[in-house]
Amino acid sequence: ISFMAATAFALEAVVDLASQMADDNRNDIRIEAALAKLYGSETAWRIADELVQIRGGRGYETADSLAARGERAVPAEQLLRDLRINRIFEGSTEIMHLLIAREAVDAHLSVAGDLIDPDRTLAEKARAGARAGGFYARWFPGLVTGPGQRPGAYGEFGPLAGHLRYVERTSRKLARSTFYAMSRWQGRMELKQAFLGRIVDIGAELFAMSAACVRAELLRTTGDHGPEAYRLADAFCRQARLRVEELFGRLWSNTDEVDRRIVDGVLAGRYTWLEAGVVDPSGDGPWIADAAPGPSRVENVRRTLP
Prior knowledge:
The structure is a single chain. The chain has one domain (2-258). The protein has helices at 2-24, 30-55, 57-60, 63-68, 76-84, 93-116, 122-139, 161-185, 193-221, 226-252, 256-267, 295-304. Helix 1 (2-24) packs across helix 9. It is mainly alpha-helical. The radius of gyration is 24 Å and the shape is flat.
């Protein structure tokens, strides 16, 4: 229940912040909007899943079934079904990961893209190296120190200041990790989708932490449930820190290569023996229907028209 309450507060803060940035119409908010969609879809689904679990058998019942037994018609299972589609529609979670990752490294690609492109000539790589050297000479020092290392930074946020200092420090750590990955994998980095997904998930958690703290401070200054908002923001940030640290650990210690080999084997049909004895609940027909126009398809359409 603590997770649901704290995360619901953060989710509202993320959506509200992204919406305000869009209304201001001053900045390019492609990353923030994508993060709001990604975080909102995933988080709302987890909250609904927890709701069904907490309600037990009643969570699995339909609202009509509950009403027929004289109980409050809580449509928990419908919420779970309705929210599940958000992880697919308007950009699936996997596509959002790649889109956000691409936007995040776009500045690096514009500066050093030729340097890691295997098709570029030595002369082109030399020119790209000179440009990249100038850019990173100014950019990289900013990843070493910042406000997050000053004990009094963000003091206007009171008890939440420590969380914002953590966000600032960790954001720089995230940038360093991304830069190291680009140096290590170069042009092959776009193939490291699991790694990029974790990078984006860390960024989403940090964005949500910032939004929660800002919203809590806003509610405090307006006198609208300030103490309660601060408690929710503090609980969420503490929970988010644990998730962030776990994701950082999995950046470099994971089973990605093993998983990739297993996936290749599945696609090659080397594990079909696992299906022996399994009852297939699906019907007949191809996995994906033929979308090419043809006489039979046109005739079927005609038959359905009034």
